[in-house]
Amino acid sequence: LQNYSEEEKTAYLSAIASLATADRQASGAEGQFLQALGKQAGLSDGATQQVLAAAEDASNQSIQQHLDVLKSSDLRFSLVTDLISFAGADGSYANDEEAMIGKMSQYLGINPEQKQTLEKVVDQAATVAHDPQDPGKQGFLSSIGDKLSNVGIPKGALMAGLLGVVAPMVISKVVGGGGGGNRSRGLHSSTFQPEPFLTQRTP
């Protein structure tokens, strides 16, 4: 994430925080996790506080503001990849989650072919054995560069993301379940309605 502005990094992490906690308040453990992500991304204290605030304010308006920042950033591809990966972290990719991510992708200017390619990347990444020397699967991401560029996705776009295609192994342990209880570990979409992204509101 070093090559991106603080505004882009803040929007990227805020969008993940908002969508991962969209139907409830973030727990203490989740807050600490988001703070750690902010620190790893090199965010200022003020920007990190914005990310934490996003986890508490998962409204359509706040999420749309984050997405507006990412519309012209390659991080939009990383964001959608992370959300696809996280949505399937509980072992299933629910129809409502897929529909929501589809509408967000459209809002971000990611076409259906690009979204389908990102879904395939997530599926393939799940089969790549964990390598302690390459925990972020950078070798795998490098190997699929041509597949990405063929559909208009910059080769290095996914490598820029903080979580990338390893999101289930990282996020799902903290956000949305923590390994205990009966809470769903997928993407929290039950209270998030993305339709306003696609329709012009009248005053």
Mean pLDDT: 75
DSSP strand (E) fraction? under 5%
* Intertermini distance: 38 Å
Shape: globular
Indicate the low-confidence ranges by residue numbers.
Answer: 164-169, 176-186, 188-203
Largest beta-sheet characterization: none
Class by alpha and beta content: mainly alpha
Q: Count the strands?
A: 0
Percent helix, as a range, is 40-55%
Gyration radius over CA = 16 Å
Q: What is the count of DSSP helices, taking H or I runs of 4+ residues?
A: 11
SSE arrangement, N to C = HHHHHHHHHHH
Outline the structure in words:
This protein has 203 residues and is an all-alpha fold. It is 54% helix and 0% strand. The protein has eleven helices and no strands. It has helices at residues 6-20, 28-40, 45-56, 60-70, 75-87, 95-107, 112-125, 138-143, 145-149, 167-170, 195-198. α1 packs parallel to α3 (45-56), α1 runs antiparallel to α4 (60-70) and α5 (75-87) packs antiparallel against α6. The longest helix is centred in the first third of the chain and has 15 residues, at 6-20.
Walk me through the topology.
Elements: H1 6-20, H2 28-40, H3 45-56, H4 60-70, H5 75-87, H6 95-107, H7 112-125, H8 138-143, H9 145-149, H10 167-170, H11 195-198
Helix pairs in contact: 1-3, 1-4, 1-5, 2-3, 5-6, 5-7
Which features does this protein show?
203 residues; mainly alpha; 11 helices; disordered C terminus
Summarize the model shown.
With 203 residues, this protein is mainly α. Helices cover 54% and strands 0% of the residues.
